[in-house]
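The protein record quoted for completeness.
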Amino acid sequence: MQIMNERACTLCRREGVKLFLKGTRCETAKCAITKRNFPPGAHPWARTRHSEYRVQLREKQKLKRYYGVGEKQFSRDFKEAVRMKGNTGENLLLLLEQRFDNVIFSLGFAASRKSARQLIVHGHVLVNGRRCDVPSAKLRPGDAVGVCQRANVRALAKSFMEERASFPMPAWLDRDPNALTGRVSNLPVRADVSFDVREQLVVELMSK
């Protein structure tokens, strides 16, 4: 667990931003970005050449790590974003926002997107009353999610929700904190994405 936690902090330091990989800890003074806001490695201040490719790659890696998406899934989402009408970069962001694991995290039922994926894979969260164990599933307006009836799982989800009470919930989601349920009320828009990312650079890299 310690190695895993250190790796999460290393990813944040590599990208130079908080990726919120460790839940509420990222909002405390223990956050790695607060304590050591410089790249990991033996020579973090060494002069590097900021080429166009390097800048684009860092934006892509930052986006993938923020949502916890692998290369294969990220490529699939990008291809789907290209097929959709409108701006490809915004389409990609909104597809990532609609992921099942991101919705569970945004509703506050998990400490991080990684813990949200664990809840989903183990069948502890339902979609429209049915078990769905696919974290990458895209939720649509009208879809309802809820924590299963197992007492220990509900207690855990409630504790996460209380810890993250200060975190703002996206406007496109509705939540019933007493019932531990949520609902997708609308499709997300670009303004709902608070993460600082230049998606056009990602599109330029993926289009090469």
Observations:
- The first strand starts at residue 125 and ends at 127.
- The chain is about 45% helix and 10% strand.
- Confidence is low (pLDDT under 50) at residues 1-6.
